[in-house]
Design brief:
Blueprint (H helix, E strand, L loop, with lengths): L1 H4 L3 H10 L1 H25 L4 H13 L11 H4 L1 H20 L3 H5 L3 H25 L5 H9 L6 H10 L6 H32 L6 H33 L6 H22 L4 H11 L6 H7 L3 H22 L9 H19 L12 H7 L5 H12 L1 E2 L2 E2 L3 H26 L37 H7 L1 H4 L24
Helix pairs in contact: 3-4, 3-16, 4-16, 6-14, 6-16, 8-9, 8-11, 8-17, 9-11, 10-20, 11-12, 11-18, 12-13, 12-14, 13-14, 13-15, 17-20, 18-20, 19-20
Length: 494
């Protein structure tokens, strides 16, 4: 009787073998294990978790070299790829949440000059490296390669400044203020270049007038999203606050809906979805949803963090699996990686010019802007997907060179900053900065916080402790003490 109700053993095995969900579940388990092990090892070595996740992905993606060919299916699996791209969207949404439009307007002229120099100079140098090493490639490819050098990962610098007792210095204020503009300019360049490449791939020529139109479209979207979003966001959360559901669920779902809608809108107008996600993060301010925060007892960042903790490491591991170790056997790839790293370092030294005329350690500003990170990897990954006349804009060898550049700049910065600043001052030393600067901005994993994420700068806490920023945000509620359920953000992703 029961034997009639159950499938025979071969049939059951066949069903299990073709079940796509079970295959995805296994791949997710492998990717998450690799991410957490790699991140843990990196943090124990004093490096950001993102580097450990990236290296873990490189090792995982090359296990076929020792006979484990099954792992080759991971980077090409469409479900895993979608989850990784969602991780990139959430990552840029988190980055946007750590700043506001008011922060951008208050960074000051000097920080703005530092940011502009730190974006334009590496872009031009990277463009030149592409033209030198890849002379047969299109100028669009050279421009895209330069764009991968533009964005700074300031979390590494912020942690080193704290360790050195320099987090309240004038140099730190300039670096951290410039990092806000740095992200915006880098994403704007990405938006323009991807649109130009898509237009050229469609067979249409790109004139100077067309280039201006593309730049205007990208700028208009970003500015329009910020202006309209800031006006709509309080009303949207006001409507959401009337719902009777739990405050946590209403706040999180409303914020994610706004993030995904802006990301989709960006893709509709020909920009990368991450541009829209970043704009959504900039729009949202706690003053817009203070009632929902009071009901839930947790900030929006704390609610988003568990989802990002799941999806963002998948993105970085998958980025690593797309690096083939065989490419490092080619001297031209290693030469390209070395030149890109050199251009990335020299290009950010132009930031020191922003300190002219002020009593600042100009070399420290240049070095503090060196590390690249997640945004550079996102740029390179988009290049793998973009095609120009049937050829990927970024081939596997070039992608591997960009990954080497990201890793090298992240490793170089901490010892270079320690050298240029010298040893940390004694605890009893009299501070050299004015008293109004406030206390040291919180870094996840710093003394007194939960361990596990030692390299992420907390813009929200920094904003509350700095009067020059806090005073510019009317209607913002006073800082709340961290709740018992607070968890540190993902290490090294700033």
């Amino acid at each position: 009787m029961f034997s009639l109700m159950l499938p025979d053993a071969p049939a059951a095995a066949a069903v299990a073998a073709v079940d796509p969900v079970s295959h995805v579940i296994l791949m997710l388990a492998v990717v998450l294990i690799a991410a957490k092990l790699g991140g843990e090892i990196a943090e124990r070595l004093g490096q950001p978790a993102v580097l450990g996740e990236l290296v873990a992905g490189i090792l995982l993606g090359n296990l076929d070299l020792v006979g484990l060919r099954w792992v080759q299916t991971i980077p090409g699996d469409p479900t895993i790829d979608v989850l990784g791209k969602l991780g990139a969207v959430l990552l840029l949404f988190e980055v946007g949440l750590e700043s506001t439009v008011a922060d951008i307007m208050k960074v000051g002229g000097r920080a703005f000059v530092v940011a502009v120099l730190g974006v334009v100079t590496p872009w031009l140098l990277g463009w030149g490296v592409g033209a030198l090493v890849l002379p047969d490639a299109s100028p669009y490819v050279h421009a895209f390669l330069g764009a991968t050098l533009t964005a700074t990962s300031v979390g590494i610098t912020a942690r080193v400044l704290l360790d050195l007792g320099r987090s309240q210095s004038s140099e730190a204020r300039v670096i951290l203020g410039a990092a806000v503009i740095d992200d915006v300019l880098g994403l704007l360049i990405l938006a323009v270049i991807t649109s130009v490449i898509a237009t050229a791939n469609a067979g249409a020529g790109v004139s100077y007038g067309g280039l201006v139109a593309i730049f205007g479209k990208a700028t208009a979207f970003l500015v329009g999203a910020l202006v309209i979003g800031r006006a709509v966001s309080p009303k949207l959360f006001g409507v959401a606050g009337r719902m009777r559901g739990q405050g946590q669920g209403v706040l999180l779902v409303t914020a994610l809906v706004l993030c995904f809608l802006l990301a989709y809108t960006a893709s509709i107008v020909g920009l990368a979805p991450i541009v829209g996600a970043y704009a959504a993060g900039l729009i949202l301010e706690e003053a817009h949803y203070v009632d929902l925060v009071a009901r839930s007892g947790r900030s929006l960042q704390e609610l988003v963090r568990p989802i990002a903790t799941f999806l963002v490491p998948i993105f970085f591991v998958i980025m690593g699996t797309r690096v083939r170790l065989e490419t490092f056997a080619h001297p031209d790839i290693l030469g390209l990686a070395a030149l890109l790293t050199l251009a990335a370092i020299i290009g950010k030294q132009a930031c020191a010019l922003g300190g002219l005329g002020a009593p600042l350690n100009k070399l420290a500003i240049g070095i503090g802007m060196i590390p690249r990170g997640e945004v550079g990897l996102i740029f390179a990954n988009l290049g793998l997907a973009l095609t120009l006349h049937g050829t990927p804009v970024v081939d596997p060898g070039t992608y591997s060179a960009v990954v080497i550049m990201v890793v090298m700049t992240a490793l170089i910065t901490p010892p270079a900053l320690k050298w240029v600043f010298g040893p940390a001052p004694e605890p009893a030393a009299v501070p050299t900065e004015p008293a109004w600067l406030g206390p040291v901005p919180l870094l996840a994993g710093a003394a007194g916080s939960v361990a596990g994420a030692p390299h992420r700068f907390r813009w929200d806490t920094y904003r509350e402790t700095q009067p020059w920023l806090h005073a510019s945000r009317p209607g913002k509620p006073a800082a709340r003490p961290p709740s018992a359920s607070s968890r540190p953000p993902n290490g090294g992703r700033s």
